[in-house]
DNA sequence: TGTGGTCGAGGAAGCGCTTCCTTGATGAAG
DNA sequence: CTTCATCAAGGAAGCGCTTCCTCGACCACA
């Protein structure tokens, strides 16, 4: 850990002056100020917020108070449910949960610095797309980190993650379709760059291959509604004889069902559909969706405990848990 | 602020011993330990986490990293969207966002102590139901607090809040119904104890009264889907001639539409419906809902800036902002 | 040339807590 | 009756930073 004293020494000034320079006080000579900035940059100085808060009597942090009901009500998105589980679990400990937002246009390096500056003991990462350098960077820093969902880089780096059984869940989905007598089964995936997409595709193709069916009817999408609608159209264009489809998220399924309706295909009479997630959408849509449920709250909670373990024993082997998925049968198969 | 030294003095021991007692170390005599506990309780001692973190070299806080996309994706719940706005705004400052969960079964006093122990500079409160003592308690403490939505107690206490124009939005809703030629218009409200319910009911009745229509067809519910379905049933039983309904949330509207369908009433042919929120549900439902949109992200962002103002000038008058709502016309009227 | 004012910089105290190290008291062992 | 552990408690240092206060250097003015 590099402290203000280190910076002061490097810059050849007193700690007082260094502090002033860092905080942009005007009573410091421009030249020296610049020297301090340079030293700080070179050394990678991050003011310790605890020390700062102690000295200033301020904390620079505001609380966001949410009720449990609130979080419970967020049963509609992947992220929200994992958040719910994590927050509940955190509340049992005496830890604070600090939320960091990674802006879409922020570079990985910048964000990493930001994270390190926030002086937390560890981090849980819930990122929609893991196709950034972030996992690799985080693996290099020695901050304990747990990912929700297997990062692509996990094979090369000692990363810890908690994931649901995407492969197994997709096998369930495919088999439900097959059991319903479907033989021309397509799949709408998430981005190929994401671990979940890869895992789910693997399970799906594995099941189809085992039954000697064509597993090459795949359309890549983005997990969103509009993307699902579009991908469904593509799939239909290329394979008019389609009689079943596995869609990797409820959100995309909502779009896909819309496309099917406008194309005059009835679900499930003409085409059976199985999706993934089991969010509220699955029950408000017509027909109600048969979908693979992930234990999202449990995943969130497990992230917290795993992170605690990692913080307690930083040198231990990475933690990699896979929690079981289940098929929820409704009306779309 | 009461410090460890105060506690030690009160208990008649050294600061060292007090620290040990507080932290449950075993090298302290049970009797003295009890004395310290008593003193701490009496004085309302809360260890300063910054000092603790500085001394221990730990922070007892873990980060939850979420991507902007993540938060953006949570467009489906009231809470989530406000959260999105708040987080984005916070990210612009150098403040940290600490999330505190208020468990459903936790007493207000206990939570207040918890909040004070977390040593934040201020708090934003997003609570579904304000029918607790919490607002009043928070008003007594001198922590700057901003509520999302007008708390009931706001008339008696100098509370700050950011709210959307519930009255105005409800007037819009009622007038849309009236303009569609509806004359027997009911309303499904949230809990009467909540400020939003009261405001929306007021706007609704105001509009109906202005047109000389009966504004007494009201059913109280809970903002949830199941509750909405049930309330719709009640309303239909009591007023079979109903030809329009204002439902105070999309979630309840989903339930209400279900009930209408099973009772053989077509929307909007037989009954027109306007709801409130404009979440994804409004577009995935059949028919797509005409609904009142609140500027939720803006509300969340405004909470942050308002809180900052409050922290800067704690003695200033409470901040009470009302942001405009708009009617989004779709297919249910 | 002397006086006063301004500016930049540093010394040192202190924020509230933990913990190492030391000390005094007590009991067990020789 | 010593000598040694053992235990409980306190003194004091120190975590990393901010900031009050002091001080020297420099310039302008009379």
Overview in brief:
By secondary structure, chain A is an alpha/beta fold.
Q: How would you characterize the overall build of this protein?
A:
The structure is a homodimer of 333-residue chains. The first copy, chain A, has 333 residues and is of the alpha/beta class. Chain A folds into 3 domains: 4-56, 434 Repressor (Amino-terminal Domain) (Orthogonal Bundle), CATH 1.10.260; 61-164 and 297-323, Response regulator (Rossmann fold), CATH 3.40.50.2300; 166-293, Response regulator (Rossmann fold, 3-Layer(aba) Sandwich), CATH 3.40.50. Chain A has 14 helices and 12 strands. Chain A has helices at residues 4-11, 15-22, 30-43, 49-56, 68-73, 78-92, 108-117, 134-140, 166-179, 195-210, 225-238, 250-262, 281-284, 296-312, and strands spanning 61-67, 96-102, 122-126, 145-148, 160-164, 185-189, 218-220, 244-247, 272-277, 290-293, 320-323, 326-328. In chain A, the strands form 2 sheets. In chain A, strands 7-6-8-9-10-12 form a 6-stranded mixed beta sheet, with helices on both faces. Chain A has a 4-stranded parallel beta sheet with strand order 3-4-5-11, sandwiched between helices. In chain A, helix 12 (250-262) links the parallel strand 8 and strand 9 (272-277). Chain A is elongated, with a radius of gyration of 25 Å. The first copy, chain A, starts with a helix and ends in a 5-residue tail after the last strand. The mean pLDDT of chain A is 89. Chains A and B meet through helix 4, strand 1, helix 5, helix 6 and strand 2 of A and helix 4, strand 1, helix 5, helix 6 and strand 2 of B. Strand 3 of chain A pairs parallel with strand 1 (61-67) of chain B. Chain A binds a DNA duplex (30 and 30 nucleotides) through residues 1, 3-5, 13-17, 19-20, 23, 27-29, 32, 47-48, 50-57.
């Amino acid at each position: 850990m590099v402290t203000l004293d280190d910076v002061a020494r490097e810059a050849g000034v007193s700690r007082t002056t260094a502090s002033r320079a860092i905080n942009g006080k005007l009573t410091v000579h421009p030249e020296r100020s610049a020297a301090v900035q340079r030293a700080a940059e070179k050394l990678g100085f991050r003011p310790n917020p605890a020390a700062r808060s102690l000295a200033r009597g301020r904390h620079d942090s505001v609380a966001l108070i949410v009720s449990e009901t609130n979080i419970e009500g967020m049963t509609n998105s992947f992220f929200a449910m994992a958040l719910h589980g994590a927050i509940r679990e955190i509340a049992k400990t005496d830890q604070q949960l600090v939320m960091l937002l990674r802006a879409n246009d922020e570079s990985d390096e910048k964000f990493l610095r930001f994270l390190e500056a926030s002086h937390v003991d560890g981090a849980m990462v819930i990122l929609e797309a893991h196709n950034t350098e972030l996992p690799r960077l985080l693996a290099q820093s020695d901050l304990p980190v747990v990912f929700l969902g297997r990062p692509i880089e996990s094979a090369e780096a000692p990363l810890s993650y908690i994931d649901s059984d995407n492969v197994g869940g997709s096998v369930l989905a495919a088999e439900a379709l097959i059991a319903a007598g479907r033989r021309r089964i397509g799949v709408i995936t998430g981005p190929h760059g994401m671990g979940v997409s890869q895992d789910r595709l693997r399970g799906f193709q594995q099941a189809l291959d085992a039954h000697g069916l064509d597993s090459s009817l795949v359309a890549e999408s983005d997990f969103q509604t509009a993307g699902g609608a579009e991908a469904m159209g593509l799939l239909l264009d290329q394979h008019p004889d389609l009689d079943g489809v596995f869609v990797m998220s409820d959100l995309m399924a909502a779009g896909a069902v819309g496309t099917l309706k406008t194309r005059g295909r009835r679900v499930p009479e003409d085409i059976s559909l199985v999706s993934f997630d089991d969010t509220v959408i699955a029950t408000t849509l017509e027909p109600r969706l048969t979908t693979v449920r992930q234990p999202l709250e449990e995943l969130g909670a497990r992230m917290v405990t795993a992170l605690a373990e990692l913080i307690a024993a930083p040198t231990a082997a990475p933690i990699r848990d896979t929690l079981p998925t289940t098929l929820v049968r409704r009306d779309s198969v």
